[in-house]
Amino acid sequence: MRWSRYFWHTSKEEPSDAEAPSHKLLLKGGFIKQVSAGIYELTPPGLRVLRKIEGVVRKEMDRSGAQEVLLTVLNPAELWKETGRWELYGRELFTLKDRNGREYCLGPTQEEEVTDLVRSFVRSYRQLPVVLYQIQVKFRDEKRPRFGLIRGREFIMKDAYSFDADQFSAMISYESMKFAYERIFKKLRLKTLMVEASVGTIGGISSHEFVVLTDYGEARVAYCEGCGYAGNAEVVKLPKNGEEEEEEKPLMELETPHTDTIEKLSSFLRVPSRKIIKSVLYLVDGSKPILFLIRGDRNVDENKVEAVLGTENFRLAEDKEVRELLKTEKGFIGPFNLPPSVRVYWDNSTYGLKNVVIAFNRPNYHYVNANPRRDFSYGEFVDVCEVEEGDPCPKCGAPLRVSKGLELGHIFLLGTRYSEPMKAFYRDPQGQEKPIVMGCYGIGISRCMSALVEQYHDEKGIKWPTPVAPFELDLICVNTSDPQQREVADKLYLLAEEMGIETIYDDRDESPGFKFADADLCGFPYRLVVGKKVKEGKVELQDRHRGERQDLDIDRAVDELKALIEKDRQTP
Q: What's the pTM value of the predicted model, to 2 decimals?
C-alpha cells in the first residue's frame, strides 16, 4: 500500500482529553477517531490491527472445536425477562422500543439469545456437547467511559458459549477454554495473569479473568509471588483478625468537635486510625438503610458490598438522609440506638479489637476505649474490606502484591443459571429431561488493541508485535524527487509485496524527519530506509523493538527481511 494513497492521517499534537498511553497513541497514530464519549471509529490501519487480533482468536477458537455463529445486535426483551436480567442488569443496558411498542435491548452479552438458539434444536444428550462463538459488536451504557478503547460504550467482543450434559463435561469445556485463552494471549504477545473473579451480573458457579497489569486498568488484582495465587481484589477473602491481647480500659465519652473524618479524629485523639471503627451508611433500592462497620485504616470495597447485598442498586446516604434517619451527622454514625429498619454488618477487620474509638450517633462526640461484648455487640460478620498490599494470601498466608489490572478475557462456569429458567432441556439416556449445563467465555477484541499498546510503546510511539502490526514493513523513500532512490524504492516495494511481506510504502512528499516520526509513532516492526546509501548499493534496515540498525545490500535486503519476519511470525 502506498501511503500517499492510503487513508491514514497522523497527528503530532497531544490529545487534550486522553490519559492512558494507548488512548493517546491510537488517536495520534490515526488508528481511531472519537465520535462521542465511549464511541470510536476505526480507520483502515486500525481495522487491520483489529482483524489480525480477530484472526488469532478465530483460529484458536476453531482449533478448540467451537463453531462460529453470528447472533443479532437487537435482542427482544422477552428473552431477557425469562432469566430476570431485564431488571437485574441495571442501567448499563441500552433499551429501546420499535414502532409497535415492543421492547428491545442492544446486546451487551448474549447468554439469553444463544440459549434460545440451542433450545430450538437440541433435544438429546447425543447432540451435546456443543460450543458456539461469535465476534460481534456489543453495547453497554457505561457510567464513566474512559481511556479510549479500554472502557467504551460500543466495542467488539468475542463471546463463546458451551453446552454440556453434566457438570463434569462442563468442567472439561471450561478447562479447554482456559487452554485456548492462554494460547490466544501468548500468540498476541500479551503478558496476562489469570485470576479468580466474581460472577457478577452474568451469574453462575465460578469465573476467571485474564488481565494485563497496567496503571490504566480498572480492576484491582491481588497476587502471591509465593504460591502463585491470583484473584480480582473483590473476590480475595480477608479473614477475621485474632483477639487483641490488651487489658480493657474504662469506657469514656469525649467531646470531639470538628472530627468528621478518620484523619481528623485520629489527630485530635492521638490514636492510630486502626483503633477507630468507622461506619458507612448505604441506601439500597433508594430507601433500605444498610450500615457497614470497618476498621478506620481500611476502605470499603463496593464490589464486595454488591456481592453481600446481591444488587448494584445501592448508594451512600446523603447528609440530609443521615440526619433524618439517625439524627446525627456524617462522621458521627455508630451502631448504637439504631432504628429497627437499619441492618448492620461488621467487616472482618473489626473482629477482636480492644479499646477502640467509636461513634454513637451524637454529633461531635465519640466513645473512647469501647470494647465488644462489654460496651457493644457484634452483628453479622462479612468481608467488605478493600484488599491492600501485604494482606495475607488466602492460600498460603504470604504477603499479597496488589496492582491495577485490565481485564481482557473472562470465562464463567454458568451451570444451569440460564438453561433452567429458559427451559433449555435435553433427554438423557434414560429419557429423563435435564437442564443443559453451560459456560460462557468472552474476550474484548477492541480492548486487546489498547492492551497491546499499553505493553508495547515508548516515548516515540507504538511498538506493535509483528503478528498484529498494521504493516510488517515501512518502506521509506527519503527523497522522492531523487530518481535513483525512487527507482530502488519502487523495486523493493513490488518485491516485498510479491514475497508476502505486508508493506506500507511511504512515498509521500514529506521531509525525512516527518516520515521517521510517523514510522516510530505508528509502530511498524521493521523499517527499510532508501536514502543516499543507494549509491553504494545499500539500504538501511531498522528494528523498532530492538533498536538495531544495519546496512543491507539492495539485492539481498528483502530476502533477509523476509527471514526475520517469518521468525517473528512463528515465535510466541
A: 0.88
